[in-house]
Design goal:
This protein has a single domain, classed as Aminopeptidase. By secondary structure, it is α/β, with parallel strands linked by helices. The chain has a five-stranded mixed sheet, with helices on both faces. The longest helix is centred in the last third of the chain and has 19 residues. About 45% of the residues lie in helices and about 15% in strands. It has nine helices and five strands, in the order βαβαββααβααααα.
Length: about 210
């Protein structure tokens, strides 16, 4: 008789992007890093506030083993890599249950909208990891390919300047794409070796690497 195969436990992972660009990027990361014992779904929040995006993650993916939300950080002057949603032991859960390296994690206070989500909704069964891109997705994209963004911190106290800074950053992003769609650009230029190399320099990429 042949030897029976030992079936690996399936790890379910949900990746929720704020919009189309985040989803295209997450799909590329999934293609590069997904393992055979992973079931990974990538979903699009189609914009909205940080609160509504996190709400969607709690409602739809509460029973996934690992949930990561990728959203912009364009309304906050702090360049926060991520915030964690869950109970007081969420940091310990991310270290032990997800087996994320301690050096990858930081203790970031929960934003006000995140505290409201926890208060008014059932607590997530598992932690939800919110990854805020540097300023906007465009900033993360540029840094990923070794390009210094034209803006590194947005002026949230001056609406006109804030708007111009976002426009300048988007223009720099489009110049790099050179008329290609984001999916086309990523498929041609982002391989596993590059992604893992940049994970040593960009905290947001390190978090994506370590949940797989």
């Amino acid at each position: 008789m042949g030897k029976s195969r030992v079936r690996q436990a399936l790890t379910t992972i949900a990746l929720l992007g704020e919009g189309d660009d985040e989803v295209d990027f997450l799909n590329r990361v999934k293609a590069l890093l997904q393992k055979t014992n992973h079931h990974v779904i990538v979903d699009n929040a189609n914009g909205g506030s940080e609160s509504s995006i996190i709400q969607r993650a709690i409602q739809h993916y509460n029973y996934y083993d690992r949930v990561l939300v990728l959203l912009d950080n364009d309304k906050n002057c702090e360049n926060t890599p991520f915030a964690m949603i869950g109970d007081d032991e969420v940091r310990e859960l991310l270290e032990e249950k997800w087996q994320l390296p301690k050096k990858t994690l930081q203790n970031v206070p929960l934003a006000e909208c995140q505290q409201k989500n926890i208060k008014h909704n059932k607590k997530p069964k598992n932690p939800i990891l919110c990854v805020a891109t540097p300023i906007m997705f465009e900033g993360l994209f540029l840094r990923l390919f070794g390009i210094t963004p034209c803006e590194t911190q947005l002026d949230i106290n001056d609406k006109n300047r804030h708007k111009q800074q976002k426009t300048d950053l988007k223009n720099q992003y489009q110049e790099q794409l050179k008329g290609q769609t984001l999916t086309e650009y990523l498929n041609k230029n982002l391989d596993k070796e590059t992604l893992l190399k940049m994970a040593n320099e960009i905290p947001q990429i390190a978090l994506l690497r370590d949940i797989f």
